Amino acid sequence: MSDxxxxxxVSLIASMIFLAGCVTQNTENAQMQNNQNQILENEKVVExxxxxxxxxxxxxxxxxxxxxxxxxxKEGLIEMRExxxxxxxxxxxxxxxxxxxxxxxxxxxxxxxxxxVKYLLEKYGIPDPVKSDEIGKFSNPKFEELYxxxxxxxxxxxxxxxxxxxxxxxxxxxxxxxxxxxxxxxDIKFVYENLMKGSRNHLRAFIRMLxxxxxxxxxxxxxxxxxxxxxxxxxxxGIKK
Length: 241
What we know:
The chain is mostly helical.
């Protein structure tokens, strides 16, 4: 083969490799843009009442990559799955006791929160700690004990019940902040950040009710500064403020 012919063959091969690279890059860019467009839909993931739009959050979780998951990240998901159920169970019990609509509304919202974490457990193939949907039943004994303690306090009076609600949301926000700092998985961060927005909305709702009864609440898990910032700000929706 002459030198000229060899040069032509080499040039042709180089051109083919270059074009293949361009096609791959364009495909990746298109996929990235598609994912970003889907993520933008999370503007409506959280409603003012703290509800999670489950179908939208599922869609957004699916649009994010399945990254390697650490034991600590697994622990966080297992904890939050039962902690969100704890909130639901306590509110349902206190609604049956006091017939205050806020407990029924937020219990329904907490169902969407625990369902969101369950979806992440399924995505990563982690066994669900919720073996029974029965109120007050948990795999982790600390949640069963906490459920009894909170219900006992909440049964004393309506004001005590509302303080229990604020306490649960106070704890929830602190724990979500803790677990967010333990993960670098985009889908887990996405869910936790949206759950936290919902919990802040719930906290605002309970504090507003307590104020109507002439009672103040002192935060037990988050700082006073963060608490003041939350209750003095507007209800939140989605990932954009």
